[in-house]
Design a protein that fits this description.
The chain contains 13 helices and three strands; from the N terminus they run αααααααβββαααααα. It is mainly alpha-helical. It has two domains: 96 residues, DNA polymerase, domain 1, CATH 1.10.150; 176 residues, Orthogonal Bundle (hpI Integrase, Chain A), CATH 1.10.443. The termini are far apart.
Length: 303
């Protein structure tokens, strides 16, 4: 790849200055490599030669590939950030991607589980078995805290404080926060850690401080967590798809439905911007309307 020096400097900037996650660095790197390959095909030697015309040709090629608008927006955002970095370092005079304005992709309204569906999931695990205890503790943890699957996967024993009912988690960009959990999660975690987890760990030759282990006693992967949730769904005969992020959506939606304020939910979710949390207000509008209609003296005509 041409422009190797600029590429390496940008990746270093993402890792050190921005504390970007491994996945963020991979996405940015992939987008930048793809753009570099496009430039080579167009006979453009260096990143500094890119102008508005070149970008329009690149956009045309992206849309010709039938990529979704969301994917195109992400790629343009990656390149805009790269050229912003180049401009800051004095490697280019102007950021050519500043001129590119694409309409924002509509944010999908997050789906969530209803309480009846949750109850069936919570009743699915056989907690007399080691894996049943683990599955129950996993499910209770995800719903009780709203943490991301990556945060759950890296959760360690010392991160849990049973005395005050909190967990210490490292989120995106290595940002740290504390989350809360209640009695149901407390009971499920306590049972699993003092019984099921010890039996699972005994099957492995490795010593692990990770809370959640697989059947061989090794740390669960994020893919393993997703697989467990889908297995629980199949056991309940529910006709829904459940993934860890859906439990995160459910956590936020249920809190807002029960009157929690947006700032508190933002802090618990670990969102940097309130706008990321505000999407959950869309799914609570039906609830708000019902409360309004039932509570306001002049909302309905008296019969």
């Amino acid at each position: 790849m041409n422009n190797r020096m600029e590429f390496n400097l940008f990746v270093e900037y993402l890792q050190i200055e921005k504390n970007a996650s491994k996945y963020t660095v991979e996405f940015y790197s992939s987008d930048l490599i793809e753009f570099s390959q496009f430039l080579e095909q167009e006979g453009i030697v260096h990143f500094t030669e890119v102008d508005y015309r070149v970008i329009r040709i690149y956009l045309t090629k992206l849309f010709d590939k039938k990529l979704s608008r969301t994917t195109v927006l992400r790629k343009i955002s990656s390149l805009r950030s790269f050229y912003r970095f180049m401009e800051r370092e004095g490697l280019v005079e102007d950021n050519p991607f500043i001129q590119i304005i694409l309409p924002k992709a509509p944010k999908p309204i997050p789906t969530f589980l209803y309480e009846e569906e949750l109850e069936k999931l919570f009743a699915a695990s056989d907690i007399t078995t080691t894996l049943g205890q683990r599955n129950q503790a996993l499910l209770e943890t995800l719903y009780a805290t709203g943490i991301r699957v990556s945060e759950c996967q890296t959760l360690e024993l010392n991160d849990i404080d049973f005395n005050v009912g909190t967990m210490f988690v490292q989120g995106k960009g290595k940002k740290e926060r504390y989350v809360l959990f209640g009695e149901h999660a407390h009971h499920a975690l306590h049972m699993y850690i003092h019984d099921g987890r010890k039996k699972l760990l005994a099957k492995s030759k490795n010593v692990s401080s990770n809370v959640f282990l697989n059947a061989q006693g090794n740390p669960l992967t994020t893919r393993g967590i997703r697989s467990i949730l889908q297995t629980l769904v199949e056991q309940t005969a529910l006709t829904i798809h459940v993934h860890p992020h859906k439990l995160r959506h459910t956590f936020a939606t249920h809190l807002l439905n029960e009157g929690a304020d947006l700032r508190t939910v933002q802090e618990l979710l670990g969102h940097e911007n309130l706008s990321s949390t505000q999407i959950y207000t869309h799914v609570t509008k039906d609830h708000l309307r019902n409360v309004y209609m039932d509570s306001h003296p002049r909302a309905r005509k008296k019969r």
